[in-house]
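Appendix B. Raw example, untouched.
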Amino acid sequence: MFDGAAASRLTVAVRWPPVAVRRGIFHCVTLKFPRVPARVSEALVLRTYPLKEADLVVSFLTRDLGKLRGVAKRARRPKNAFGAGLERLSHVRMAYFQRETRELVNLDSCELIRSQFGLVSEYWCGVALDYFAEVSEAMLPAAEPSEKFFRLLLAVLEHLRTAGEGGTWLAVTYFSLWALRLSGWLPELDVCLSCGSFLNDGESPERAFFGRGRAGLICGHCRQALGAGSNSELSVASRLAAGEMVRMPVAHFAGQEWGRATGADLRRFLVQQIESLIERRLVTARLFDESAAGA
């Protein structure tokens, strides 16, 4: 039988917390486990911003999650967990903590896979690195996976390493074209935006013109009809080169001579399209315009 006295004794026996604990006889020791990063991603560092006295805000493009921004604690101190991994367009393996309620992730450390330090010694390669980072930072939406854009950056960086400063102009042109194409904003290069006529007839190709604020090319007839006399011309050679770039990887053009003047009109057209998309002028693009003017 389970009588009242037994129930009373049981209640006393299971009373919580125990008397010994209430009196502080036992001490609770918390086990300290090593902190494990919540995620590790292959990434390219786009840009860093100073924060407080010793921290950095880092914008980086991951292969799996797209563009993210995070805080690197004590990254500006001589001894830190990041080393040279936060330099512009460094290829790293980034360890970070991500919370759904916060816009910025917490960076834990990064393992350097490949640095672009060797390219900085050549002036135009350094400008190209700044251009790649600026365009990527401006065009890519936050936290939207874009592995193709990630591979595009790796491809043009590899081209710069193998071709040196002589490959700068091709790398910049190829990157600009594919940045627009992957974003879905590359205009048709063989059709007039106004009348729809075909521009790249094999026997007698039409002249094509472009201007700031116009999302495409117009033929000579439409240029006269619209009174757009100040528009620049995109040559047939540049249009054919753009068509080839759409079909071929950048490594395919490695053996070709591509100087400052080569495709200068195409670069100007692509830069204007990018600036119309992001609704501001690119700082680094002005340097390419100055070089073309002085060539």
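End of appendix B.
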